[in-house]
Write a structure and sequence with these properties.
Elements (H helix, E strand, L loop, with lengths): L2 H18 L5 E7 L2 E7 L14 H6 L3 H4 L7 E7 L3 H42 L1
Antiparallel strand pairs: 1-2, 1-3
Helix pairs in contact: 1-4
């Protein structure tokens, strides 16, 4: 019973550490008229906010075939996103842990009454 609070604190620390140390790769999606291209932001100017680099000028400077013919920058749309971030992984792990824990508790509740009946029957003969 003494280990239970420590186990909770250690698991909480590990989850916070996983979420805060997010080093996932960001992507910039350049949409020129009906064509779109996804470009990985491998070397962002600002590592804390890599999406600041995903601009219309970035798409034009990348010399995409669909965007080079564009003269009006209003027709170029940019979307910045991340895949497989540690925050997403932590949420999935917590969801699976909670779901597994609830299923385990349901299984124990189903088995426990039978175990206690057997123990009562075993020890009821000793009390007479």
């Amino acid at each position: 019973m003494i280990l239970r609070p420590y186990l909770f604190l250690v698991s909480l620390f590990l989850i916070i550490h996983m979420v805060s140390a997010d080093l996932s790769l960001s992507y910039c999606k350049c949409i020129c008229s009906k064509n779109s291209t996804i470009i990985p932001l491998t070397d962002p100017i600002d590592p804390v906010k890599p999406c600041n680099q995903c601009t219309r000028k970035f798409c034009l400077d990348y010399n995409l075939p669909a965007c080079t013919a564009m003269t009006d920058q209003e027709e170029i749309t940019t979307i910045c996103f991340q895949r497989e971030s540690r925050k997403d992984k932590a949420i999935i792990i917590m969801f699976l842990g909670v779901t597994g824990g609830l299923m385990g508790i349901a299984l124990i509740r189903k088995i426990a009454p039978n175990l206690t009946k057997e123990q009562r029957n075993r020890y009821s003969g000793l009390s007479n």
